[in-house]
Write a structure and sequence with these properties.
Radius of gyration: 15 Å
Number of strands: 0
Number of helices: 8
Largest sheet: none
Order of helices and strands: HHHHHHHH
Shape: globular
Helix content: over 70%
C-alpha cells in the first residue's frame, strides 16, 4: 500500500485519473454554490474556462505536486492515527488544511503571467477559504479512493 500522497497521487499510472477526478470535484463544488457569492463563483469559473479551455485540467496537473506536499503532513497524521475517512479528518482540521492548499494557489496566482487569471482569482479569493473548507470532505474521499487502488 502507498504510504505518501506523492506515491498515491503522482504515480504515472494513476495521475491522469486523479486529474480527471479533481476536475470533476471542482466542477461539482462550483455547481453546488448558490446565492450571490455562488453566482459570482459560477460566473468567474465559466469565464476562466472560456478564456482558456482546458485550464482547470492543466492547472490541476501543474499544481498537483504542490497540493500533495501541502496535504502530506495531514495525510501522515491521518495514517498514523488509523483513520478511515480522510475527508472527515481534513474537515476536523479545516482551517489549517484550507490554508495549506490556499498557500499553493496564492503563490501560483501571484506569479501567473495571465492578467485575466489574476483578476478572476482576486475576485474569488476573499471567499476562497470558505470554499476550500467546503470541498475538503470530497477531496478527502477522492484521496481515499485513490489510496485504496494503489
Amino acid at each position: 500500500m502507498a504510504q505518501t500522497l506523492e506515491e498515491i497521487l503522482l504515480n504515472p499510472a494513476n495521475r491522469p485519473t486523479v486529474i480527471t477526478d479533481l476536475q470533476h470535484l471542482v466542477d461539482a463544488e462550483v455547481s453546488d454554490k448558490n446565492g450571490v457569492s455562488g453566482a459570482v463563483i459560477k460566473t468567474g469559473y465559466t469565464a476562466v474556462k472560456k478564456i482558456k479551455p482546458g485550464i482547470v485540467e492543466s492547472a490541476m496537473n501543474r499544481m498537483l505536486p504542490e497540493f500533495a506536499d501541502a496535504l502530506e503532513p495531514f495525510y501522515g497524521e491521518y495514517r498514523a492515527t488509523g483513520g478511515n475517512d480522510f475527508g472527515a479528518f481534513l474537515t476536523a482540521r479545516a482551517d489549517a488544511a484550507a490554508d495549506a492548499l490556499l498557500n499553493v494557489t496564492d503563490e501560483r496566482a501571484q506569479h501567473t503571467s495571465s492578467d485575466a487569471a489574476k483578476k478572476v482569482y482576486a475576485k474569488l479569493r476573499p471567499n476562497g477559504k470558505k470554499n476550500v473548507e467546503e470541498a475538503l470532505p470530497r477531496l478527502g474521499q477522492l484521496i481515499d479512493r485513490h489510496a485504496a487502488g494503489v
